[in-house]
């Protein structure tokens, strides 16, 4: 079973279970030249930092330049929706390309940052002041905790683990779609997944799913490095990690917004 994240579809999450090398299937030993151009952990760290830095910079600029107040709220929300749609399109184009395109990845990061900036500004201004800082810290805490758990081998990423995560994520996304449809056709707050106790539970499940995808991402990056994947593949790793961290941030923001808004 491969990860349901298309960015990582070329990397099987089952190293040690009769896994073959997708980058050099006919060679058991890498040449000196291939070793010099192989992806390293430093490559992944630098490119992930670049993508996340672009998200953060775009979010800060959109917060400052697109204030969500009574005079500009309609324009700001329109820009946020437009940015979210563009980010989604760019992510899908890149996800299904055979080679990484840094311009697409950084473009996705920039538009995603605009969306997050406006959403975060609106949430902090009208619903739960101070929640954005808490959400950022919470996202880093989840990522750090998952990295420690993975490095200590408290979590074993196997075929079964990947299958359970993929199936759970599919069910989660289907519920989100159903909620959106109910809300669009006049059911008020939809199925109630964004408010009250049910909203908190649903958000926590989303955070746990994001954490599990981080484990899959860590495993797949580790395998790609062991296989001697070409250096350009580090952009795919950065892209996948950025998507997962954005997912976790949104779920953490939802949970904290509900808790703070009702306290």
Please tell me about this protein's structure.
Helices cover 71% and strands 0% of the residues. The chain is mostly helical. The N and C termini lie far apart (43 Å). Helix 5 (131-151) crosses helix 7.
How would you describe the shape?
globular
How many angstroms separate the termini?
43 Å
Query: What is the radius of gyration?
Result: 19 Å
> What oligomeric state is this?
single chain
The largest β sheet comes out as: none
Order of helices and strands: HHHHHHHH
Number of strands: 0
| Tally of helical runs | 8
Strand percentage lies at under 5%
How are the SSEs placed, and which strands pair?
Blueprint: H1 32-36, H2 41-65, H3 73-95, H4 102-126, H5 131-151, H6 159-184, H7 196-227, H8 233-262
Helix pairs in contact: 2-4, 2-8, 3-4, 4-8, 5-7, 5-8, 6-7, 7-8
């Amino acid at each position: 079973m491969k990860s349901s994240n298309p960015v990582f579809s070329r990397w099987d999450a089952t190293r040690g279970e009769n896994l073959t090398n997708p980058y050099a299937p006919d060679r058991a030993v890498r040449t000196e030249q291939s070793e010099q151009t192989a992806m390293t952990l430093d490559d992944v760290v630098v490119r992930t930092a670049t993508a996340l830095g672009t998200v953060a910079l775009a979010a800060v600029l959109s917060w400052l330049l697109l204030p969500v107040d009574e005079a500009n709220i309609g324009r700001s929300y329109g820009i946020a929706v437009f940015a979210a749609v563009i980010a989604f399109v760019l992510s899908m184009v890149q996800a299904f390309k055979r080679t990484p395109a840094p311009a697409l990845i950084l473009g996705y990061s920039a538009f995603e940052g605009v969306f997050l900036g406006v959403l975060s500004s609106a949430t902090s201004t009208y619903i739960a002041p101070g929640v954005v800082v808490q959400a950022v810290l919470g996202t880093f805490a989840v990522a750090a905790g998952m990295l420690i758990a993975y490095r200590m081998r408290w979590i074993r990423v196997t075929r079964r683990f990947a299958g359970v995560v993929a199936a759970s994520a599919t069910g989660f996304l289907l519920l989100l779609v159903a909620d959106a449809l109910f809300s669009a056709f006049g059911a008020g707050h939809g199925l109630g997944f964004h408010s009250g106790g049910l909203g908190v539970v649903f958000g926590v499940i989303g955070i746990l799913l994001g954490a599990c995808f981080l484990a899959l991402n860590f495993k797949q990056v580790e395998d790609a490095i062991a296989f001697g994947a070409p250096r350009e593949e580090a952009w795919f790793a950065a892209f996948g990690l950025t998507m997962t961290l954005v997912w976790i941030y949104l779920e953490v923001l939802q949970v904290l917004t509900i808790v703070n808004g009702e306290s």
